[in-house]
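Lecture 7 notes: from sequence to structure.

We start with a single chain of 455 residues. Read the sequence below before looking at the structure.
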Amino acid sequence: MKYGLMILTTVCMLSSCNTTNNTDEVRLITLDPGHFHAALVQKSAYPQVSNTVYVYAHEGDDLREHLKRIEAYNNRQESPTHWNEVVYTGDDFLAKMLADKRGNVMVTSGNNGKKTDYIYAAVSAGINVLADKPMAIDTKGFELLKSCFEIAESNGVLLYDIMTERFEIATILQRELSQIPDIYGEQTQGTPEEPAVIKESVHHFFKTVSGVPLIRPAWFFDTKQQGEGIVDVTTHLVDLVQWECFPNQIIDYKNDIEIVDAGHSATPVSHQEFRQVTGLDEFPEFLMPSVRNDTLFVNANGYIIYRIKGVYAGVSVFWNYTYPEGGGDTHYSVMRGTKSQLIIEQGKAQNYIPELSVKVDDSVDAEAFEQSLGKAVALLSEKYSGIGIKRISDRLWRIYIPDSFRNGHEAHFGQVTENFLNYLKKGRLPEWETPNMIAKYYVTSTALEMAAAKD
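Now the structure, written as tokens:
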């Protein structure tokens, strides 16, 4: 056993560092940070959160990369943070974290194969958990996750996952417009062949984070540790289907959801690409079963067709190695109502910025609809100042969104954290959040099982 220590703002040993007696203060624990999302939670500071953060992890590259990102936030010129990372390293880091219990909120973002066990340990010890997605990557993990929620409720602590896409302005406005009958009409049900709600996401292995090229750990490419794309990124998409189509409604996974179809496929990663994104010269042994002709094949792509409360939804994820010049990760979404379709696009034509359009149905008078849309957006502008409409063609309008609302994906982690801190102050989540998290992970884990059964 040994103590590893990184000094960012003060000199302090883990066994003697002064901690606050203020029970209202949030004290963060970061457990085994292997993904950059763990650092993004700390890109912003929060008044009710202590600057001292307790980190428990193995010594190695994952930890070093995490601490480098925190140090960069502390040293930036604009709005620097003042985090003091007190680090323990050792093979017993989980047991040590539970024994010390120096914080009251554990943040976990890393190896997803271990994450559900980490969550179980934390809530069992009476520690609140803010977890990066996914919280479970297979049906075994899903069953354990259900137990985690039961234990969290019994111990009076909160368990919450980081759903950043709820804070993307085009998605927010898509949700808002779908709740206005004069614009959207009623939600159509769709079919398995043409779902009423479609959400697609394209991600990339090699990209930049906070302006720096991202170095990914080798285990990120192992679906037994990271999880397949169908249980990873699709977590966001399934969440948005529930959040937009059934706002503030409880989803009962046993009665409200039917998985219709699912499939998966691999993205090839060459030896040279793997070296570029990981810094490793060779594929590690645990990846060799997925290597053919010096190319790694990662089951990162997948789709799910399912029915939720009678509405057919289709979600899919694709991973490319890197994005085109000027591009980035992209999101595509269609919601089909009886009066209009609400469409989000983020391709080259949109300069890779999410744009929301409204396409009126052929059965609706376009001129009357434009007046209704103008009134609806004018009312929404009281909440989202500066938004407007622009007619693109006879039956298509673009929602104008001011740049002030486009704060970017990284900023959304701070918004999710602030949301969680508000729930923590109240001592409870909204009544629909926990059953809907369970429903979400039921969809992804069951879909993976269905896709694997086809192999």
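The radius of gyration is 22 Å. Keep this in mind for problem set 3.
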